[in-house]
Amino acid sequence: MTTATLTKIAVADPVVTPRPSAFDVRDSRAPRYTSYPTALQFTGAVDSEVYGQWLAALDPAERVSLYVHVPFCSRLCWYCGCHTRVVNKASLISDYVENLVEELALVEARLPGRLGAGALHLGGGTPNMLSRDDLVRLFGALRHVFRFAPGIEISAELDPATLTEAWVKAAAYHGLTRASLGVQDLAPHVQEAVNRIEPFETVQRAVGWLRAAGVASINLDLMYGLPRQTIADVRSTLDAVLTLRPERIALFGYAHVPWAKPHQRLLPEAELPGAEARFEQSQAAAERLVAAGYVAIGIDHFALPEDGLAVTKAAGRLRRNFQGYTADTCQTLLGFGASSIGRLPQGYVQNLPAEVAWRDAIASGRLPVARGLQMTEDDRLRGEVIERLMCDFSVDLSRVALGHGFGVSVFAEDLAALQALVHEGLAVVRDNRVEVTTRGRPYVRLIAQVFDRRSTGGDGFSKVI
């Protein structure tokens, strides 16, 4: 097929693009590239001892980012791809926080000094499962080990259904600056299909509490591609949430990976939208958001023009990490809690995912590491190419190669492999600069995958659309 068979639709923003009519890559799978190499390439070669050495080698003058994983929820959403479980006993959560404090002490013992922290993210799971006493203990330990830099961004992922005004006030007291609320879709028949009942009024109430407490940035997570979901549902949900004027909206395609997340088998799989319906839902949502004044950020984020994410994108400094697109400039991310992932100058490290094993390691005085990956210079080279493609939809291969001490010929095989996507009009190459075309932007993960020397293909990854 030639590029002439691709039908172009005129839209307001380049991220909102037409679908190919014959060359159909919508069922293709590729990594989300929140890291390179991806976590599937991690091995046990990076263990507690190696991580300890990496911690000791950190520059005391450099700020770091912190991530704390809270693997608990009060309900099981059947679409969920996170590492979490349902817990109803407060004592289990408090015990987990005590283990977090002990893990922080283990890390502190290996650090070269009291490092400054430029960002802190509480993820999960549902961080607002922590009690106010748990928050006091956790933040006390974090501030003891790290110096919170002026202007530190403290963010948390929250479940509106279980959020309370008292929790919001407590988190705001400890410095919460940004909150991410899971909404997904407001249609009752979709919520029933995914086991997440959440009326709009619940979301509206949560946003009101956060605004009143001085939390300046609100992000709402939405999804397309859910069971029983239609374009009308997507538009109706957007019409409702846009009345709240969130600073950011994350628009994710549901990743159906029941081989990795068995609880997804509880979904009515026969009622999942097909590839064409998923594409139409994503396009309808993007069109609506751009029309409402939001700036498209990469493949799945939208932000108001004055938001830090949009400002960073305009300045060409947008980054991508395990939380998605970010304005965070810290080069080191330290993860705490079961399954958390960190990145240091030497490479990636991931904690033990099973809570029992994680707790046992801490009790024995060991850093609770399961696996990781020590990056090569080729990994760093390719990681920069992939990050720039994911963030900017373009990359100057000559500049990147020179910056890593290579000649541009290092990309010869990749450029040859890229020609299939160039032929289909998804990318162009001029003077060793790769530009993702308007119609190619939804498929940028496939273009990035061309430069991935670690991935063995699409198996195990989510659909690109």
Automatic annotation (TrEMBL):
Primary location recorded for the protein, binned into one broad class: cytoplasm
GO process annotations (BP): protoporphyrinogen IX biosynthetic process
Function: Involved in the heme biosynthesis. Catalyzes the anaerobic oxidative decarboxylation of propionate groups of rings A and B of coproporphyrinogen III to yield the vinyl groups in protoporphyrinogen IX.
GO molecular function, one term: metal ion binding
GO cellular component: cytoplasm
Protein name: Coproporphyrinogen-III oxidase
Names of required cofactors: [4Fe-4S] cluster
Cofactor: how and how many bound: Binds 1 [4Fe-4S] cluster. The cluster is coordinated with 3 cysteines and an exchangeable S-adenosyl-L-methionine.
Chain sites annotated for binding [4Fe-4S] cluster: 73, 77, 80
SMART domains named among the record's database cross-references: Elp3 (SM00729)
InterPro entries linked: Coprogen_oxidase_HemN (IPR004558), Coproporphyrinogen-III_oxidase (IPR034505), Elp3/MiaA/NifB-like_rSAM (IPR006638), HemN_C (IPR010723), rSAM (IPR007197), rSAM_horseshoe (IPR023404), rSAM_sf (IPR058240)
Associated pathway: Porphyrin-containing compound metabolism; protoporphyrin-IX biosynthesis; protoporphyrinogen-IX from coproporphyrinogen-III (AdoMet route): step 1/1
PANTHER family: COPROPORPHYRINIGEN III OXIDASE, OXYGEN-INDEPENDENT COPROPORPHYRINOGEN III OXIDASE
Protein family: Belongs to the anaerobic coproporphyrinogen-III oxidase family.
Subunit structure: Monomer.
Domain (Radical SAM core): residue spans on this chain: 58-292
UniProt KW keywords: 4Fe-4S, Cytoplasm, Iron, Iron-sulfur, Metal-binding, Oxidoreductase, Porphyrin biosynthesis, S-adenosyl-L-methionine
Residues that coordinate or bind S-adenosyl-L-methionine 2: 79-81, 125-126, 184, 196, 221, 255
Native species: Caulobacter henricii
EC number(s) given by UniProt: 1.3.98.3
Pfam families (alphabetical): HemN_C (PF06969), Radical_SAM (PF04055)
Cell compartments where the protein resides: Cytoplasm
Binding site for S-adenosyl-L-methionine 1: 67, 124, 157, 341
Catalytic activity: coproporphyrinogen III + 2 S-adenosyl-L-methionine = protoporphyrinogen IX + 2 5'-deoxyadenosine + 2 L-methionine + 2 CO2
